[in-house]
Structure formats: C-alpha cells, structure tokens
Design brief:
With about 350 residues, the chain is α+β, with helices and mostly antiparallel strands. It contains 14 helices and 6 strands. Strands 4-3-6-5 form a 4-stranded antiparallel sheet, sandwiched between helices. A two-stranded antiparallel sheet has the order 1-2. Strand 5 and strand 6 form a beta hairpin.
Length: about 350
C-alpha cells in the first residue's frame, strides 16, 4: 500500500511540473478529476496531492537528486565496493538473524529490503561525490599555495635506533614513569656515544629494539609526513642529510635517535594541486558538517531547481535549514568534546 502511494505521488509530481499557477496551493490541470469515489463523496487528485505532499519532502528531494546525479555520476566499482562494505558492516551486527536485519534497516533507513537499501546507499554515495567535487571547486588558489608551502614535502630517508619503554599491564603510574625515565636515560647514552665518535650502525645492533630494522642498519627507507608519528617526522624534517638528532625523539613506540640519510625534492605545485584540493575539501567538510547540506543546496540551485508549488518550496527550505542547523550543532558539540 505504501509503495503504491509513493508511485502515485511520483506521477502527481510529474504533473506538478505543468501546474496552471504558482499559488500557495497550486492545482493540477487534471486535479478536479476523481481519484477515489466513496458513498458520501469523492477524493480528487488535487486533494490527494495536497495530503501526500505533507509527509513526502524527503522522497521529493531523493527524486530531485536522482535526476541530478544518476547520469553525472554513474555507478562504478568504487560505489559498489562502498555499498557492499556498508551492508557487510550492518549485517555483522545481526549475523544470521535476517528478521532483525530487515527490521533494523527499516528503522534506520526507512527501507523494506536490501535492494532498497542499496538504492538508498547508492544515492548517498553519489551525493558524497557531488559534494566533494563542489567543495574542491570552491578551493581558492591562495589556499592551495599556502597548503603547498606548509604541508607538502619531499620524501625523507632515515635510519633510527629505537629504545622502547618496558611497561606492562597493571603497572602503577609511578612504575610507568620510572620505566620511561630508564629508557630516556639509555637513549641519551646512545647519543653521547655517537658524539664520542662511535658509528651509528654499530649502535643500532647494540641498542635498537626495532627488530624490523635492526639488521638493516636501522634503515626505514623513504617516507613522508603521513607515514610517521608527528614527532618523528618533524624531527627528521629539521635534520640536514648526514646529521642525527641530538635529543631523543619520543613517539608511541618509545625514544628514537634519528639519522637522516636522504631527501627528495617535493612535487611541483602543478602536480600536487589535485591532491591538495581533495585534502582541503575533506578538511573543510570535517571541520564543518553543515557544509555537506549547504553544498547540496548550492548544487541544486546551480542546476536551476524551481518549484511550481510554493508550499513544496517552503517545505524543502525548512527541511534543508533544519538539516544544516543540526549539522552545525553536531560540529559544535564535537569540537567542544574534543577540547
């Protein structure tokens, strides 16, 4: 019954594009025709349309976005992979309980079957891609230049000696601090031996707790900022080739003595520009969740979405304003909780 109503509503919406006027309650050209007759009267197409639209703004928005995005962003392997992973994750909570699974997707997604769920997730995926493209196109050249100057680096090659911290589960804070002090003292001892002229390679074999690099002279190969702990990366970045850190560098693994052995030139701005735009768009969306909905509104406006019914227009605006407001509140709450 619910599906039939939705189908009929879709037909009425198509008719809405050829409305006779733009009044508050626009009427269909065939609106006076009887949709249903009963013993004591009749229900016209206009009457049915007015009732159905009250609770159908989300369906209308979905129909609009299908028109906008289905052709521009045809389904591909990346979309299929994303949908399959989400469904697999949802199913993992219910295992072989099909009834609970179907009940859950109805509750959280408003769908009756996995097929409908895939259709819903497909539209959300396309919206995400569309928003990402839109935000990338809003990134200004000076933002790109600033990010390039401050965050794009050539790969660095380094070797290290790791002095791990011997902590065990159940230790008191005092015991943990003593273990940390012991490791720091040993790391400083290694640096002192380097200053006395001992070879880095020999000290790697003698002291390093990194089994993966101990037999490779401590060599970590080439890496960039995303590959390393921030403290480790920043320390390596400041070194000149052939120099080592004169203070132990702390990371989640323990204390490091880092020897810089190579450095490559960073990418040109032209070759890095595309990736920078992606990164900045993602950062903006992460820092302000409301940008997702604001972008969708802007995309629809750009595609000259118009309403032949002023009530539907107001319902759409109110719905999007609410989503934007809630997203801003969620962003503020997240920011507060992280402080």
């Amino acid at each position: 019954m619910r599906k039939k109503a939705f189908i009929y509503f879709s037909i009425l919406l198509v008719g809405c594009l050829s409305l006779t006027g733009c009044g508050k309650n626009a009427e269909l050209k065939v609106g006076k025709q009887t949709a249903v007759a009963v013993k004591n009267g009749k229900i016209t197409a206009d009457h049915l349309y007015q009732e159905l639209k009250k609770d159908s703004i989300e369906k209308l928005i979905n129909m609009i976005d299908h028109k906008l995005f289905d052709k521009e962003y045809p389904s591909d392997d990346n979309e299929k992979k994303s949908i399959d992973e989400q469904i697999e994750q949802i199913r993992s909570y219910y295992k072989d309980d099909e009834s609970s699974y179907l009940s859950a997707i109805k509750t959280y997604f408003g769908v009756e079957s996995e097929k409908e769920l895939k259709e819903t997730l497909s539209l959300e995926y396309k919206r995400g891609v569309a928003v990402d493209d839109y935000l990338q196109n809003t990134i200004k050249d000076d933002e790109i230049q600033k990010y390039y100057d401050n965050n794009v680096f050539g790969d660095i090659k380094a070797s290290h000696i790791l002095i791990s911290i011997d902590t065990k589960e159940g230790m008191s804070e005092e015991e943990k601090n003593k273990a940390k002090e012991k490791s720091l003292k040993e790391a400083k001892k290694v640096i002192k031996e380097l200053e006395e002229g001992k070879e880095f390679n020999s000290l790697v074999k003698k002291y390093s707790d990194d089994d993966a690099t101990k037999n490779k002279k401590g060599d970590l190969g080439y890496f960039n900022s995303d590959d390393m702990d921030a403290n480790f990366w920043n320390a390596a970045l400041q070194l000149k080739k052939g120099k080592y850190t004169t203070e132990p560098v702390e990371s989640s693994y323990g204390y490091h003595i880092i020897l810089k052995t190579g450095e490559k030139k960073k990418k040109s701005l032209k070759s890095a520009k595309k990736e920078i735009k992606k990164t900045l768009a993602k950062e903006k969306l992460t820092s302000d969740q409301s940008l997702y909905y604001e972008s969708l509104v802007a995309i629809r406006e750009k595609n000259k979405i118009t309403f032949g019914d002023s009530e539907l227009k107001k319902m759409y605006k109110d719905h999007m304003d609410k989503l934007i407001k809630n997203a801003k509140q969620n962003t503020n709450n997240t920011s507060t909780n992280n402080q």
